[in-house]
Amino acid sequence: MTTRNPTTDTRSRTSKTDAAASVSQAAHALDRQLEAVFMVADEPQGLVHLATAVGRPVAEVAASVARLVADFDGLSSPDGTQTVRRGFELREVAGGWRIYVRATHDELVTDFVLTQNPSRLSQAALETLAVIAYKQPISRGQVASIRAVNVDSVVRTLLGRGLVTEAFTDSETGAINYATTDLLLTQLGINSLDELPHLSPLLDGGTDGFEDLL
Asked: Which domains, ranges and CATH numbers included, belong to the chain?
């Protein structure tokens, strides 16, 4: 008959408990890392891209994304407890994941952006808006190429103001292409984009303007 050693059993249980706690802490840390990435991402992020960014296996990242979706939706948190349904959601779009305002709050957010936060656009935002207006549909990368600066935050501002919208996602590159909205026409007091002035006479060095830059 084998006699069990209470001390050995206790140590074994403690070791398993510590290992489980370590895994839980690692999962929690990964969730917070991905959450931070999603907060600044302008385009949907694929699992492989996210895994590369945080230096973790794709399977672990996929599990973390699933936990975040459930957490934001108020289904459960990493520790299994019920959470509060957030005003935003983690949504899969075009093969990637990105944080969006929850549809039930679209009207409120639109009203806030358009009427409660009416600060003027910066020069950078105006220049970016002009490029999109004349070259639409156009990706952020193409806009950045024309302006020779990063336009991520500026495009976010224009989206928030309702002046541009995500027209479509390129099936090959995954890049989101942007276009102007009817709100821009209203703000400019015109009926269509055809009424925008021709740029060529306003630009130095030729008659073609940036129409030929891309």
From this structure: 6-103 (1.10.10.10), 119-212 (1.10.10.10)
